Amino acid sequence: MQGYPAVGGNADRLVLQSWMDYPGQTGPETLTNSFLNVTKQQMELYF
Q: In terms of domain of life, where is this protein from (predicted)?
């Protein structure tokens, strides 16, 4: 995710999606492999 801005990209939006139709667990964000935690980690990398 850092490569795009590094080469001059400047997106207006960022979409984070899950490929799981019915995830077994979405949170809490303190759980290592939860959707919320993974999303939080991606946001921290990008911003």
A: Bacteria
In a domain, 15, yes or no: yes
Rounded to 5°, the CA angle 7-4-23 comes to: 170
pTM value > 0.85: no
pLDDT tens for 17-36 read 777 777 777 788 888 888 88
Structure tokens at 39: 């999303």
Is the predicted pLDDT of residue 7 greater than 80, yes or no?
yes
Cα angle 46, 32, 14 (rounded to 5 degrees) comes to 25
The residue range of the domain holding 28 is: 11-46
